[in-house]
Amino acid sequence: MRAETKNRRSMPAKWSMIMDNIRIDLKKNKMVYLMALPVILYYLVFQYGPMGGLLIAFKEYRPGRGILGSAWADFYGLGNFIDFFTSYDCGRLIWNTIRISVVSIVVGVPLPIILALTLNEVKSERFKKTVQTITYLPHFISVVVISGIIVDLVGTEGLITAILQKFGYTGGNLLNVKEYFTAIFVGSNIWQNIGFQAIIYIAALASVPSDVYEAARIDGANRWKQMLHVSLPGIAPTITIMLIMRMGNIMSVGWEKIILLYNPGIYETADVISTYVYRLGIEGSRVSYTAAIGMFNSLINFGMLLIANKIGKKINGSGLW
User: To pair with 97 at 20 to 30 A between CA atoms, which of 28, 197, 219, 255?
Assistant: First the structure.
């Protein structure tokens, strides 16, 4: 009893000490907090504020009645979720989303690392900068323009289609063949982002101490072994963080490009959750139903982020937090 009473009396003193430390820190770093204030306000107003609208997912939203005035969905507000999970499209959408994301991660994560490690071994600075410039320029091209280029390249008379016809392909537009969509989408994403992502790993490689390479050379390590045992471990924390961030978006596929590329004939393999939400929510005005789907999508992403972060910290001690 005496110990509990003592702890209760010490609580106000602890809070007082914490508040004093906060006031001292605010006074000491006043300009830093003022610089951060616009960023904090942006996230509060445009990121956290709209989260109150998630209530729509549990209601039968009617614009004339507003969010609070609309009736609750069936099954204690879970009717929209149940409708999606029992729908014909649910399994197909989830499978397409996961398939495209996993292929993008399996193929798209190693390639920028390989490019960065390769450029790190190049002695000619002029050649290295030229390759970097050529590879990261597509990242700054608009998605609409990129999609237009892809449509032209894989069209009936496109360059890629003509090359494939030399090897026996007898079809027309590649975007009309459902089996090819994943390869086209993932391949174009890699072409667009490989150079920009490689810059992150090149910057990480620059922070590896040169004396570590020198010690490896003294021990008899050739260039290949230096890459495997010095360069790659040196950027392992960066690789882990980038992979965690990719896993946190595993259910979020680039829907803008998919909408610009796909057509009803290849919905079976090209339609993903985000495009389905766009079609039914914006074009079909099923706001509550698609809000529920979007909320489910975000929860899966959040869960994967937590799992990937925990695994990353256990493997090499690196994580987002």
Answer: 197
